[in-house]
Design a protein that fits this description.
This protein is of the alpha/beta class. It has one domain: Rossmann fold. It is built from 5 helices and 8 strands. The chain is globular, with a radius of gyration of 16 Å. The model has no long low-confidence stretch (mean pLDDT about 90).
């Protein structure tokens, strides 16, 4: 995937300075990468860890990745997520990394943000990435919906792909997304994975 950097150099997520592809950020922005895992038990079921609170410089940085086609930011973010996995889930052996699938009809989804993060982090950690999930119903963008509306909007829209179901029994899965707000989307995907007899589903995001 790093062929992207031949045309689009790696840049610091926080200020946009050009960096190497083994750096999380530029030397001037190191202060923004002091990672203290934000941990929560999503709906009292799914251990979830995130890097940064979704405000100020961290919000601007992830929006550049999500909506302004700065696709190459998956590289520094994956380095940070790799550290977060060690801190938050260091005692868990994951069999597979997977990700929330991209929205089918969302016009501003120009690429699979969560999938890129998961694939690169899997490569770094020498874990296998598998896209287990598919969207089976249309839904609105979650961006402008209230909490209760978000849960209704994603209810029943994801399922495990038929050809992947047999792979999940007894497995520990790490589920990636870029941002968690209410957790409605992660919860829906995690439930679908557990319904296929996964042993454990943990979740990881950049912002919370």
């Amino acid at each position: 995937m790093k062929f992207l950097t031949l045309f689009f150099p790696c840049v610091c997520p926080f200020c946009g300075a050009v960096i190497r592809d083994d750096q999380k950020c530029c030397k001037n922005c190191v202060k923004f990468t002091k990672i203290t895992a934000h941990k929560q038990l999503l709906y009292e079921k799914y251990p979830t860890a995130s890097l940064f609170r979704h405000d100020d410089v961290y919000r601007r940085a992830i929006l550049k990745y999500k909506y302004h086609c700065q696709k190459q930011l998956y590289i520094p973010y994956s380095l940070m997520l790799q550290e977060l996995i060690d801190e938050a889930f260091g005692d868990i052996k994951f069999d597979y990394y997977t990700s929330v699938p991209p929205h089918k009809r969302k016009k501003d989804n120009k690429f699979d943000q969560a999938g890129l993060l998961a694939k690169e982090t899997a490569r770094i950690n020498k874990c296998k990435y598998v896209q287990f999930m598919e969207q089976v119903k249309d839904s609105k963008s979650q961006h402008h919906l209230h909490r209760e509306e978000r849960f209704v909007n994603v209810r029943g829209i994801y399922r495990v792909c038929d050809k992947r179901r047999s792979m999940l029994a007894g497995k520990n899965i790490l589920l990636f997304d870029d941002v968690v707000t209410t957790g409605a989307t992660l919860n829906e995907c995690a439930q679908a994975l557990m319904m296929q007899n996964a042993n454990m589903v943990c979740c990881i995001t950049v912002n919370w």
